[in-house]
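Support reply, case 0932

Customer input (verbatim):
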Amino acid sequence: MANYQAQRLDPRTLVPGAKSVIVVAMNYHTGQPAVVTEGTGRIARYAWGLDYHDVLRHRMKQLLTHIQLLAPGTQGRVFVDSAPVLEKVWAARAGIGWQGKNSLIISPQLGSWIFLGELIVDLELSADAPDKNRCGTCRRCIDACPTGALVAPGVLDARRCLSYLTIELKSQHAIPQEFADKMNGYVFGCDICQEVCPWNLSLSTDTQEEAFQPVPGRNNTPLHEYAGLTEDEFRRWFARSPVKRVKYAGFMRNVRAALGE
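Our regenerated output:
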């Protein structure tokens, strides 16, 4: 986060002449429950289906095209985890929701099971009002985090977060033993702070997006089956999936850690 601070703080460095940031949210919650059986490899819900980057980017490019039809000459750029954009800050300012104690954006309609995307344009638009923080005195996410990564309300120490450790940590580095013992079966990402959130527990809206529906092998697969995958099988299992980001070596490292090896 220390890198590219100028771009994070000023969208005009990413889109010359930028005047507005349009933030969108897309629901990815499906009605299928997460499997937490002992010995099962767990994958964060957002990676059960196809890669959201492709889905959301395509939709947002359509949005930009529509805006250009309404306001010819408008220039803009779509961002879906593709550049140093402070997406949570912009989402909160745009009224998508508030930044909760788990550091995620919580929508009063969709909870935190949402993908965010940004469209920065050189068109002057009226801003929506930000939402108020509705977490109140609740601290379930903080108390439930198995590694103590939520060090204060809204403050995440990524070095302790299972999502960071299973995805962003370079594959040549072993997961520290103090955290490997607390993986709860997770081999890609972690949803614990979302699963305990009251806003998510009361959620009744499931996504109708076909691309986000669970693909077999991404929610209820025994760890020993993951451990037996060859590199070619890994590529086939996780084709068009965010899981491929960790590559085969990183995934197998995560599986071994979850198995206690």
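We compared this against your earlier run and they match. Two observations from our side: The chain has a mean pLDDT of 94. The two ends are 32 Å apart (CA to CA). Please reopen the case if you see a mismatch on your end.
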